[in-house]
Amino acid sequence: MTARMSDHGSDFGNGPGTGTDRDIDVLVLGGAGVDTIVYVPELPVPFADSHMIRPGIRTRAGQSGDFVALGLHRLGLRTHHLDMVGADPEGDLVRAFHRDQGIPLTEVPQPAGTKRAVNLVDPEGRRLSLYDATRGHDDDRLPPATVKALAARSRHAHVSLTQPCAHALPLLRDAGLTVSTDLHNWDGRDAYHQPFAYEADLVFLSATALDDPGATLRDIAARGRARVVVVTDGAAGAWYLAGSGAEPVHVPTAVPPAPVVDSNGAGDAFAAAFLYAWLAGEPVDRCARYGAVAGAYACTVPATRADAIGRAALLAAAGDEDGA
Q1: What is the pLDDT of residues 155-183, one digit of tens each?
Q2: Residue 39: is its pLDDT beyond 60?
Q3: Which residue in 1, 29, 6 sits closest to 164, CA to CA?
Q4: pLDDT of 98-116, one tens digit each?
Q5: Per CATH, which fold does 4-317 belong to?
Q6: Model confidence over 238-270: pLDDT tens digits?
Q7: What does the domain layout of the chain look like in residue ranges?
Q8: How crowded is residue 33: how many other Cβ atoms within 10 Å of its Cβ?
Q9: For residue 70, what pLDDT band results from cuts at 50, 70 and 90?
Q10: Tens digit of each residue's pLDDT (9 = 90 or more) over 139-156
């Protein structure tokens, strides 16, 4: 299985910048895919023979890894994306997304096809995602040589919750990288998420499925190697815990710069802005404030578009023009 740099059109390893040069700030693993956005009158969708959908149905590239990579790139971090991508129309959209945004993509062939989902979005911006579970296999792997080569060039790795990425975690550790991950709507118990939760230095997750967010924060910090654990909770803000034995700290929401239209991508935006500050050595409270600002901005962007806050706007909205 050969990885390919789609933005250069050559096999990975033959281009400039290879070797031990740390020319990548964040290596994003996994989470490349395509969403079909369907606006519905309400969630759950009322049973009917049919619904007239406005403003229409649109398919666009952009799943969790894509949006984290976009957020980091817009904030000025040298970002590289690695994932399995199919030779299909969805894969073409993913390749075009990275080419148009200027984000390098190393793609590994995925015979099962590019990841895809249907997102139902209601008038309040709430989302229900239907993922195509056929677009992957239990034995999918990112080639170790490719992971090692990219890791040798990187300062940090952000790992998505996909099967190939779980097997890449030891390789990233061996390379000496710090690692972050997003557990999304983990319930705090499902065993699949545990290697990600306990092997990352920085852990993000949503409060959506948690009975006791504080207990989950403490459990991850106590059982894993996380320096910081962050739980995002929509309009209620977020909570972070910095180290085992610490107490959770509340992070208030930021004021959106425009009307809220969609929550899609808010968690990815939060993670990207938090990482931007964290990698600059900023204190955790400032990292969290940046995350809140970027998440609020993302809620003003329709799900049919791919956009992320830039560095100047982030710092201005955070009241911190002299920050990271």
Answers
A1: 999 999 998 999 999 999 999 999 999 99
A2: yes
A3: 29
A4: 999 999 999 999 999 999 9
A5: UDP-N-acetylmuramoyl-L-alanine:D-glutamate ligase (3.40.1190)
A6: 999 997 778 899 999 999 999 988 888 899 999
A7: 4-317
A8: 29
A9: very high
A10: 999 999 999 999 999 999
Residue with tokens 């948690």: 210
In angstroms, the Cα distances linking 30 to 81, 164, 181, 320 are 8, 8, 11, 32
Instruction: Check whether 197 has a pLDDT greater than 80.
Output: yes
Q: Which residues contact 100 (CB under 8 A, 6 or more apart)?
A: none
The residue count for the chain: 324
Q: Going by DSSP bridges, is the β-strand pair 115-121/127-131 parallel, antiparallel, or unpaired? A: antiparallel
CA distance 238 to 98: 30
